[in-house]
C-alpha cells in the first residue's frame, strides 16, 4: 500500500486546479484569477499567487485588475489561501477587508481495499451517464453550495465532454437519490495516480441518512477500478471532514477562502 507523506499529499494538492475551458483569466507569472460560469456562487476567484515582488504590491495589483475587469458585475472576489500559498497571504487579505468564508481540511488516504462505510440500501447512486442525471448533479450543486441554476440549454454544450470523461475513466459526477428524488451529488477526477474527490454535498433535509457515505463509496470504487494510488479531498471541517476521517482519511493541512468586496476601496 502507498505510504503517504505530507510532501506527497501537498504535491497532489498543489497540482489540483480546475480551470473550465470557457473561464476568463487574469493570468501572469505571479497570480491567476478566474471568472467561472455565472451560475457559481462566487464566479470571480483568485486561485493562485506566486509573488516575485513584495506580497502586498502583487495582491493590490491583482485586486485592482479584478475590479477593473468586472466592474459591478461581480462585486466580490473569493481569494483562496492554498497549502502552497505564500506566508502572510491570509493576514494580507484580512487587512484589505477580506472575510473568512470557508475552511477546508485537505484529507487523503491510500487506495487499496475499500473502507467499510455501512451503506444503506435505500440510497440509490447513479453516475451521470445520461443528460438528465448530469442536470440533477449541477442543480444539486447550486442547491447545496449556492449560486444560480443553469437551464438545460446552457448545459448542453458541456455535456458531451463530461460524458466522454466518464466513459474514458477520467471521472465525472455521481448523484444520490432517495425515493427517486435527487438529494446529493459529488464528483471525481482521475489525474494520473491521484483520485481527486470534489463537490460532495447533500440537501439539509436528507442528511444523516447515509447519502454522503454512498457518494463516497461510489467514487472510491471507481478510483480503485482505475488503479489510482491516492484519494485526496478538500472537505468542509463542519460537515464532510468528520465522515471522511471515519473512512480512513487523514488531514494534511487546511485551506481557507476569503471574500473581498470589490465595490469599495480600502482607505
Which regions have little confidence, pLDDT < 50, spanning 5+ residues? none
Helix content percent band: 25-40%
Oligomer type: single chain
Biggest pleated-sheet summary: 11 strands, mixed
- Counting DSSP H or I runs of 4 or more residues, the number of helices is 8
- Give the distance, in angstroms, between the N- and C-terminal Cα atoms: 55 Å
Domains counted in the coordinates: how many?
A: 2
Named CATH architecture of the largest domain? 3-Layer(aba) Sandwich
CATH topology of the largest domain: Aminopeptidase
- Report the structural category: alpha+beta
The strand count comes to: 11
Can you give the mean pLDDT?
A: 90
SS strand fraction:
25-35%
**The CATH superfamily title of the largest domain:** Gcn5-related N-acetyltransferase (GNAT)
Task: Please give a quick description of this structure.
It comes from Nocardioides panacisoli. This is N-acetyltransferase domain-containing protein. This protein is of the alpha+beta class and 267 residues long.
